[in-house]
């Protein structure tokens, strides 16, 4: 195992090779969902822009209710978008609704459950204290306050915040162009009737989903056969499309039919490394073709997807300027069954999860861990991490997992 690069070092070198984030562009907030901010976002307005009622009731002066139940004269109404323009005087009240501006002169809200209305009169049955049920101006945020940072992904909550703070357009990173080239004479496109010695290509579809979920733009280059001219044509197409990252699938080893590395080297690949201490996914390759990064993934479906999660997704996030691109996304769990001692490769075992009473997940590694078995991966919820040379562990021992449904951004 001495010539195999550790997983952490491989990831570190891939991320370090992404010299700069991709360029920024301006998009409307309506188009900014799932995009990555290229600049900090400060509030352009104050929210709420006025003291606002948090309840339906009556805007009053607390001093008028200090002595207990009293009768007030209702002089108007304040509703959301239709505030009362005047000021409240002694023993006056304004009918008010949730979210409406609190009239000048008032300092509390008498909720409607504590009031009895009779025409233009309202009887207050309870006292109130100053500030009761009033959201002060700027309670949420104030103009100029920093709300979001560059590198954050605009999910539903962050996008809502940006819009509410007055932004109609935002500076985001353009989506990195990720060209995906499947390789192998045995592959046929999904939906095609496969011959007895062929298999249906699924890796490119899976990688496209990972790329798009991470914030990239997936470019499917199709399937290249096992010949240098076919592979070189696919590589040239990735260059012509100005891909930021080329992901090859299969053919990265050194067998008679594994020609991807040879084709890339003929095209000028600056090979950084290949072969890492990982199961599944030992024949991982990384390098550069000019400005285009290259990651060569194994052809086995599980290996390709696991390596896509561990290396391709963080590379895309680094291209987007995400400061947490290389962050450890594992979490603690408890072993659901015994596992044997590990060899010199890190093992990312497919596992199902149960939830314990203390809410720490229990990881049950599948018995079958063959890297060709998509059925096992499809029913798994996490990758159970076994470090190189880890000792045998028993059910109930602590472990770490990467959830398969929440580690793309």
CATH class of the largest domain: Alpha Beta
- Average pLDDT, all residues: 94
Percent helix, as a range, is 10-25%
- State the total count of DSSP E strands: 26
**Strands in their spatial order, largest beta sheet:** 7-4-6-5-9-8
- Supply Rg: 30 Å
Describe this structure in words.
The chain is an alpha/beta fold. It has four domains: 7-22 and 175-319, 3-Layer(aba) Sandwich (Molybdenum Cofactor Biosythetic Enzyme, Chain A); 24-45 and 149-173, Alpha-Beta Complex (Molybdopterin biosynthesis moea protein, domain 2); 52-135, Molybdopterin biosynthesis moeA protein, domain 3 (Beta Complex); 331-403, MoeA, C-terminal, domain IV (Beta-clip), CATH 2.40.340. The protein contains seven helices and 26 strands. The protein has a six-stranded mixed beta sheet, with no helix packed on it. Helix 1 packs parallel to helix 6 and helix 3 runs parallel beside helix 6. The protein is elongated, with a radius of gyration of 30 Å. 40% of the residues are buried. The mean pLDDT is 94.
